[in-house]
Amino acid sequence: MAYKDWMIRTRQIGACSCDYGCPCEFNAPPTRLPCEGVMAMEITEGHFEDIRLDGLRVAGAYRWPGPVHEGNGTWWSVVDRRASEEQVQALFTILGGQEQEPTTGFAIYASTIANEPDPVFADIEFELDLDNRRGRFRVENVLEANVVPIRNPVTGEEHHISIRPHRGFEFREAEMASATFWSKGALDQQHDGRFAALSFVSYGPHGLIAEESFPVRAS
79, 112, 161, 209: which could join 71 in a potential S-S bond, CB 3.0 to 4.6 Å? Predict the structure, then answer.
C-alpha cells in the first residue's frame, strides 16, 4: 500500500508508572496498575508531504487499565500552540497512526486507545541532555516531568544503563533514567522515582528509520 510521504526526526522523553526498565520492553505485564504516564517529543526535523514540522513539540498523558495490548486506553494530547492548522492536522495524522503501516509504533498504540479527551494547545517547555541522562518537560497546569539519572541505592552513584530492542517499534536504543511526573485535568496522576526513557528516534510510514549511530553510549 502506498502512503503519503512523511518523516519526523525526534528527541523524546517518556515516563511511566512502572519500575525501571519498563516490562513492555520485555513482553511482560506492568509492574503497577493502571499503566499510566506522560511523554513529550521535539521534532528536530520533519515534514508531512510539503508541510514542514521542524521545531514543533507534542506531549501527552496516558492510561491503560491493564497491559497495553488489552486496550481500552486513554490518550490526552497536548499540541504546540505555535503549530498552524495544517501542521496540527499533519501531527494528528502521524501520531494517530494514519498513513503508515499498521505494525508501526504510532499505529499500534492508536489501536489500543478507546478514550481521547479534547486536546490542549499550549506552550510546551522541553529540555533533554542525553549524555547526562537528564531532561524535563512542562505544560503549565496540565503536566510536568523531571528526569534524573538512576542512583545506586548503596553508593548513591549514578547508574547508567540503556535498552537496545533488536525488533522494537518505539526506539532502537534509549537511555534509562528516573522520573518524577504528574498530570491533572482530563487525566490525574502523580508518580515519583519511576521509569523514564530518553531517546533520539526517527519515524516514517514504514516505522523506525535506522540512524547511523545513537548519539551516546552508556559510560
Answer: 112
The whole-number pLDDT of residue 215 equals 54
Enter the DSSP assignment of 117. P
Lowest mean pLDDT among 56-60, 118-122, 207-211: 207-211
Which residues touch 39 (CB under 8 Å, ≥6 apart)? 12, 13, 14, 15, 59, 60, 62
Going by C-alpha positions, the residue among 142, 132, 107, 121 that lies closest to residue 57 is 121
Within 10 angstroms of residue 5's Cβ, the number of other Cβ atoms is 12
For position 203, what pLDDT does the model report? 96
CA distance to 53, 130, 163, 172, per residue, from 215 (Å): 22, 8, 14, 12
Residue 26 DSSP symbol? G
Instruction: Quickly list DSSP for 145-192.
Output: EEEE-EE-TTT--EE--EE--SS-SS-S-EEEEEEEEEE-SSS-EEEE
